[in-house]
Amino acid sequence: MIVKYYVLRNKIGMHVRPAGILAELVSKMKSDVKIEYNGSTADARSPVAVLSLGIMPGDRIKVIIDGEDEEKVLRELDTLIIERKFDEE
Question: Is 15 marked active-site?
Answer without folding.
Answer: yes
